[in-house]
Specification:
Largest sheet: 3 strands, antiparallel
Number of strands: 5
Mean pLDDT: 94
Number of helices: 8
Distance between the termini: 44 Å
Radius of gyration: 20 Å
Strand content: 5-15%
Amino acid sequence: MHATVKTQFRAFNAPLEGVVKYMYLDIKGLVTVGVGNLIDPVNAALDLPFRYKNKPGAKNAGQLASRADIEAEWKLIKGKPELAQKGHRACEPLTALELDDAAINTLIDKRLSQNESFLKRQKAFKDFDQWPADAQLGLLSMAWAMGPGFSSSWPKFSAACEKMDFDAAAENCRMTESGNPGVIPRNKANKLLFQNAAAVLAGEADGFYKRQILYYPQILLKPITITSE
């Protein structure tokens, strides 16, 4: 991926997912942390560098937690399915552990790299490295929300991406919002990203845009050709 995509991914994703240092249940009841990073099943959590919350009066403040303590807190959160519909803040009073920013960044980078690697092995995205940065971010955003294997059930979107027809990709990138209103702003962002990518391809030959630059959240326009009769 372009360097601009990697460096800006957390800033792009944070308003859509939130940055949560403690364990919580997502809308599907899966234990999650960071910027929408699933740690479900429990084995996904045990090797993470959780620490006791560093606040006055906290037990073992700032110290690394043991695997046993991580597992106990994970099971506590998992055992409260009623909290899945109440947002992450409903889980906070139950938690004593958290990840610091460095650990969250490591989680994000690892998952982002894994998603990119998987996507680039798919026929529809084989030219991913040549895509404009905005299109790369749009695809990675969708993979973050749905998992990188989503494209097999998205034939119109996949066909558009294979042809680098990002206008068509923009019209076919909408994820289901029913029962998950949190995806609405992501859908809007993704559509703009693919529209921007189409503008980049249309304008790069004349020097208007460059593929390696991430233009989002700007709204790009395709250049207009005026011919005289």
